Amino acid sequence: MSTTAQPARKSMPSALTFDLHGKCSTTKARASTLKLPHGSVPLPIFMPVATQASLKGLTYDQLRETGCMLCLNNTYHLGLKPGQEVLDAVGGAHKFQGWDRNLLTDSGGFQMVSLLKLATVTEEGVRFLSPHDGSPMLLTPEHSISLQNSIGSDIIMQLDDVIATTSPDHARIKEAMDRSVRWLDRCIEAHKYPERQNLFCIIQGGLDLELRRQCCEEMVARDTPGIAIGGLSGGEAKDEFCKVVDTCTGLLPENKPRYVMGVGYPEDIVVAVALGADMFDCVWPTRTARFGNAIVDAGTLNLRHQKYANDFTPIEENCECACCRSTEQGGLGVTKAYIHHITAKETVGAHLLTMHNVHYMLKLMADIRQAILEDRYPAFLRRFFSNIYSGDKTKYPAWVIGALRGVGMDLLSD
Amino acid sequence: MESRTSSSHEMSFTVLSSAAPVMAPRVGTLALAGRQALATPNLVPLTSRGTVPHISHDMVRKETAIKNFYVGLEDFIERKHPAPIYSVPVKANESPLKKFICLKNDDIVLLGSRRFPAIACPPNNTETSIAISTSVGFRQLESSRYIEAIQTLKPDIAIGMADLVIGRAPGLKRRGKMVDRTHAYTRDALDKLFGPSVTEGKPRSTNYFAPILPLDNAQQSIYLDDLAEEFRDRISGLALYESASLSFISESLSTLPRLLLSEPTSPHDVLREIALGADLLTVPFLQTCSDAGIALDFTFPAPPATLARSEAQPLGFDLWSSENTKNTSPLADGCECYACRKHHRSYFNHLLRAKEMAAWALLQIHNHHVMDRLFAGARTSIERGTFEQDVQDFNRAYVSDLPDRTGEGPRLRGYQMPAAGPNQPRRMPKVYGRLDDLSQKFAESESSVATPDTDADGLEKHGFAGKV
């Protein structure tokens, strides 16, 4: 199976501009602005996941208020409900859900493989049995792109051959990487609106750095408007994850956005930014909100815990989200005790914490960006980890120390 | 047009327009010191654990006209006393209740002992307490503790405790007890809250709405006489539990605002209650419809175009219906609510099928808006003196029943349904103990994770994948 680039390749227009404003003088962190068809996005950015064209109970005006410029929809879910016919009839997902800022859609391959255990991947596409009537079905790169064209998202993702990074089968990992490259070519070919939708490739190759290098080389040659690093956040060791991100960003062009898919936790994001990544998405902040967990500087608070029943302080002191601001400051004056009172009992409890958590993640990204622009990202990282571990450096995870050391920063020094 | 005012230091209720003191529709203004004035007849929005269900507080403030809230104390009672709500730190004159549930100072809170509608509790009420349902099980709420709650939590309006029988008709002996106990609760509460009489000019800590039991006039005549005479100076309003009670309000009590805690089944019912002289009304079907995916769609007085139609119009429509799949029109033509300004029916249909919470949030906003408009229309119509005719026209223009529920709603909570007796089927499928892979996948498909709910042809039609 050859993966050598074809000589005559379809030219790849871009519907975005990427302006790099500054780089950290120590780590590989970068601050930039991504101009997309539905507005400018400051990078690095966290993208909340509105899986089924709705951000878990929030209205899109509430999402705007958190400052969000770019959120995700899942092609898999929108393909099932409401389906391509409805999306075409309504005129795309922006109109469908009433969101006039940017959308990114994944290809649907990840959900297909992780949710449908009976799916098998062949060269043609993902084969699966229709769960309703058992008839064999095939999801191809062309199907995925056609659906994403109907959705009309500002950034669309190629269909890739997803396998767990923890897979022990090296031959299968290589096959998946090579196949993802071939599918990228099919996606580029099938893409109908490159002038208004940006197709991102997805670097595969498991935890094998050599495979990742080959994949970067092949995919960079295809000159997509942006590049994603895929196949991570699947339960691999964190230091392995960091090595992959570090290796890939080292080979990727400076003038394109880099998106690490499915990440994640604040710690993972701040480290991945230091390793040179720009874009992140994860369902965790919104999912954990529904279970009563608030993200704060010191980590995560489980507000269902009895100790918060009589805690009448805001979720996070000095947080500027609509919940935490006091009534004097035009906010709602929500307290930990009130969230404790309603969480997991009233849907409003989920709405309020979702607002807080999304706001927290976006504010974190804005602070990261500001720190990079002012070239004080290492100091930011020191304070960030000190907050989480109450200043106790012996508790800092080894993978964080190692990853940052790899980009020239000693987290343990003052 | 006559104008009569019932006023205490903190609250005044002015009847602006009314044909007769009782049994007639009337327009009024309920004004509480430092609060937004409330035009009556008006809706009393119901809360659950201090929230208007599904609408987060910021949306309530920005996109609804809701400024009064019915709150049940049982929602805040925990295993140990005092519950957290009693320790909320507040400035002088702030209400700990409002602060806890994040309401603005000028919002109006009506505190009752129980949620509304309340579920029947297996334990019995006693001479000094009533049975309540809390998140930690059934408890007794002592009448003295309820009075303390009123004093500490400082609601704008406190609804007196009543001995009610829920879910069945009380027998003859029980009815006698209901009256005696409620009489005693009321006397006790008024003495503790205000002393034996109210001194003119002395500010009241709260406005007390005395309960009138859902019984015949004759059965509670001694109690009613006391309300009209001995208690009259200390009560600021009446809380009624059925519209029939509106017929025996005495002359002396007629200037008091009437809060009707009932469960009308349609807007026609609401209009009938207004016609009988109710000032503040509860409409539980509003949320029931939102949960069921039904958008209300009616206007009072009925517009000429609706009247001109030969067939009676539906009162709302079911957004689960596949007719809405591709429909990009708003929920109701010309509706100015947030949901209609921002979204179309196709999206609602999707949200409901995808079980996304936003469906219920947006429907609540719309349905509250429709109800607000009904009350505003009723006030204008009463002032104009055309109410009777307008109601007749409305009854002709619209069908008599709300649409039937077809789709699923949000997960029901314990406080929304009566406790299960012995040998009853489970109200929710078991969620633990499914260890085999197949049923696990089934469980996933039932919850957050989407699996196709169509067959291979459907998937192909959706462009999702092709058949091979």
Task: Give a structural overview.
The complex is a heterodimer of chains A (414) and B (468). Chain A has 414 residues and is an alpha/beta fold. Helix content of chain A is 39%, strand content 16%. Chain A is globular and about 60 Å long. The N and C termini of chain A lie far apart (52 Å). Chain B has 2 domains: 244 residues, TIM Barrel; 105 residues, no CATH class. Chain B has an 8-stranded parallel β-sheet. A 4-stranded antiparallel β-sheet of chain B has the order 1-2-3-4. Chain B has a two-stranded antiparallel sheet with strand order 8-9. In chain B, helix 5 links the parallel strand 11 and strand 12. Chain B is globular and about 85 Å long. At the A-B interface, helix 1, helix 2, helix 3, helix 4 and strand 8 of A face helix 1, helix 10, helix 11, helix 13 and helix 14 of B. Chain A: Keywords: Cytoplasm, Glycosyltransferase, Metal-binding, Transferase, tRNA processing, Zinc.
Keywords:
heterodimer, A: 414 residues, alpha/beta, 2 domains, 8-stranded parallel sheet, 3-stranded antiparallel sheet, 16 strands, disordered N terminus, B: 468 residues, TIM Barrel, 4-stranded antiparallel sheet, 14 helices, 17 strands, globular
